[in-house]
Every structure is written in structure tokens, then in C-alpha cells.
Amino acid sequence: MIEVIYGKKGSGKTKRLIDMANDSIKDQKGDVLFIDDDNRYMFDLRHEIRFINAGEYDVHNAQMFSGFVCGLLAQNFDIRLVFVDAFLKLVKEDIENLQWLFDRLKTVSDRHNVRFVISCNGDAGNPPEYLKQYII
Q1: Among 36, 39, 84, 106, which residue has the least CB neighbours within 10 Å?
Q2: Whole-model pTM?
Q3: What is the model's pLDDT at position 49?
């Protein structure tokens, strides 16, 4: 399953993502990851959540992000929930061109029983057609 928090900068997406991550620990049966582009919110998360600064691993395009996530899942079969903040900063591509990546994440999600929750900047009133099915 993929869920996307989509809205303009400053609309509270990151706070909502952090709250969702912290709340998920109460009933989550597997490991929870929080991927960001820097360490800014590391201390806002509960200690049970594995915080990953993808910037430290030189993730800077969509292909690298896809490989990075697949590598994380291949290394740890217990991952059940992955939160991604600042998604477009990580992949450095226009959301209009990323349908292939969401299709790939959906396949990985279904195959490995992993839920992805992604925050993404954009006009909430005009998201790409393919993305509408994921917006919460």
C-alpha cells in the first residue's frame, strides 16, 4: 500500500508524517523506517523508528531512490512501514514524471507486504492523475 500526503510547502505535511510515524509504533508488528533528506527531524521521532538520512548515501535521483529502498528491504525482511519525507528533494524530478517509480513502489509494497507513506510538495487541487489514488 502506498499513501501520499500531498500539498503545498508549509501546509503541515511533515508534522502529519511524524505524528503518523510515532503513532504507528503502538500497533506495528514489524520495523518502521523514516527516510528524510537531512537530520532535521531525527529527534522528533520515537526511538523505535529507524531514522535514515538518505542524503548521507548520495541518493539524488529516482533510480537511486528505488534501488536504495529495495536494498533496505532486501537487507531487513521485518520492515513493514516506510515513511518518506521531502520525497521530491530526494528524487530531484518533477512529480509528473514519476509514475514509473510509484508503479515500482506499488509492486515492491505488494510483494513484500510493506506500506509506504510519502510526503510530497505540490498543488493539492491539481495532482497528477496517477497520484490521485494514493493521496490521503
Answers
A1: 39
A2: 0.95
A3: 96
